[in-house]
């Protein structure tokens, strides 16, 4: 039977899985709390525009660091789940904060005024390509940011997804090779037979034996 992420009888593995899921949920919750408590009620100036660029660079650095961590992890699948549970909420909160700043600066930037929940809702609809049409960008700045999010979402769902899966495979191969090397190192380097090896002498019932 093919093993999956959640199909394991190893209590240590189950504990690590639960801890990884809890860390991911805690990170996503912390990002959401920061989104609602940070002072974002300010005009959209150069600092806010630069903040989006810095945030995107931080997202790229975060993904690169996570890919390296996946390849070095003892359990690459769990590390990949934890990585995605941090990087994707970070990306959504980043664009939601940007949309909220745009809407706070210009009331007519979207088809209706937006609070923080509305901005997060609009971000998720763009990310999921649902597009209900109830909220749409009308100003040039809002449309530019929406286009940037669409392109980043394509990269996040396509390229980054494939890279993360590739990192998981590399991590699994590395762990398998290290396990094989550890098993091989248990043999006697002098070539002495192990405890289960057959004796060199013939048994008494063999042809030509002295018995």
Description of the structure:
The chain is mainly alpha-helical and 211 residues long. 67% of the residues lie in helices and 0% in strands. It has helices at 11-37, 46-72, 76-105, 116-127, 140-184. The longest helix has 45 residues, at 140-184. The two termini are 50 Å apart.
Structural class: mainly alpha
Helix content: 55-70%
Q: What gap, in angstroms, lies between the N and C termini?
A: 50 Å
- Major sheet size, sense and barrel closure: none
| Topology, number of strands | 0
- If you compute it from the alpha carbons, what radius of gyration comes out, rounded to the nearest whole angstrom? 27 Å
Which residue ranges are poorly predicted, with pLDDT under 50 across at least 5 consecutive positions? 187-211
Order of helices and strands: HHHHH
Number of helices: 5
Shape summary:
elongated
Summarize the helices and strands and which ones pair or pack:
Blueprint: H1 11-37, H2 46-72, H3 76-105, H4 116-127, H5 140-184
Helix pairs in contact: 1-3, 2-3, 2-5, 3-4, 3-5
């Amino acid at each position: 039977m093919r093993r999956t992420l959640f199909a394991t009888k190893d209590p240590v593995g189950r504990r690590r899985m639960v801890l990884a899921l809890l860390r991911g949920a805690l990170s996503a919750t912390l990002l959401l709390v920061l989104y609602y408590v940070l002072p974002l009620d300010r005009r959209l100036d150069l600092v806010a525009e630069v903040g989006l660029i810095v945030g995107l660079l931080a997202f790229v650095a975060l993904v690169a660091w996570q890919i390296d961590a996946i390849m070095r992890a003892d359990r690459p699948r769990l590390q990949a789940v934890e990585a995605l549970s941090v990087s994707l909420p970070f990306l959504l909160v980043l664009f939601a904060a940007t949309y909220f700043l745009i809407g706070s600066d210009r009331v007519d930037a979207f088809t209706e005024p937006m609070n923080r929940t509305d901005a997060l809702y609009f971000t998720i609809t763009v990310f999921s390509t649902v597009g209900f049409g109830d909220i749409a960008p009308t100003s040039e700045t809002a449309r530019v940011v929406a286009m940037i999010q669409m392109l980043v979402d394509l990269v996040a769902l396509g390229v980054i997804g494939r890279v993360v899966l590739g990192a998981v495979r590399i991590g699994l191969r590395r762990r398998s090779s290290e396990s094989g090397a550890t098993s091989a190192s248990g043999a006697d380097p002098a070539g002495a037979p192990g405890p289960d090896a057959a004796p060199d002498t013939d048994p008494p019932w063999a042809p030509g034996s002295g018995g």
